[in-house]
Specification:
alpha+beta, 2 domains, five-stranded antiparallel beta sheet, 4 helices, about 25% helix
């Protein structure tokens, strides 16, 4: 006798499958955490020496007033608007690092992995930040909604102002920048 003769078993199997699938989806969704606010960024990798950038240092750096940024998801759907922001160019901090490189030609082989506390990662190439206009649009946010980021739950925050789908590289809770060479 095959399963076709026992529709109850077939239906029961499907119900168990759907129950299990539903449980797994809920477990995955509930297991995701919001980024934890950070007070410093650890910069490591192919550098002569690692570095730590503290929020207090960022707040004392000269910052620029930035336009409002509509935050969109991967589909282009609006998820919010970040207003009244100020920030420091990411490349102005990265250019002060001492890279482990025999000469400037090899800098084109470098890339930066920006990692948030929730495991989210974004990658920029050296040329993208230092040899392209895009590098003039990536900011460490020091103020948002008229308040310093030191008091925000999103700190440390990165925003890229020339992306079409801005949420893809809008990083909350930045904790580490890993400098790699391909």
């Amino acid at each position: 006798m095959g399963r076709e003769e026992y529709p109850l078993i077939k239906n029961l199997s499907m119900k168990i499958y759907l129950l299990f699938f539903s449980f797994m989806i809920n477990t995955v969704l509930l297991a995701q955490e919001k980024p934890i606010a950070t007070d410093s960024i650890i910069v490591t990798g192919n550098l002569k020496s690692p570095s730590i950038i503290h929020m207090s240092q960022l707040l004392t750096m000269p910052s620029e007033s930035l336009p409002d940024l509509t935050i969109t998801n991967h589909l282009g759907e609006v998820k919010g608007v970040a207003k009244n922001m100020k920030g420091v160019l990411l490349k102005s901090i990265l250019e002060k690092l001492s890279y482990e490189v025999p000469g400037p030609k090899q800098l084109s082989e470098f890339y930066f992995i920006l990692m948030a506390t929730d495991g989210y990662k974004v990658v920029y190439s050296w040329n993208e930040l230092f040899n392209n206009d895009a590098g003039n649009k990536v900011y460490l946010i020091t103020e948002k909604d008229g308040k310093t980021m030191g008091a925000s739950n999103e700190r440390i925050l990165i925003a890229h102002f020339s992306d079409f789908k801005t949420g893809r590289r809008y990083i909350k809770g930045l904790q580490q920048i890993l400098v790699k060479r391909s």
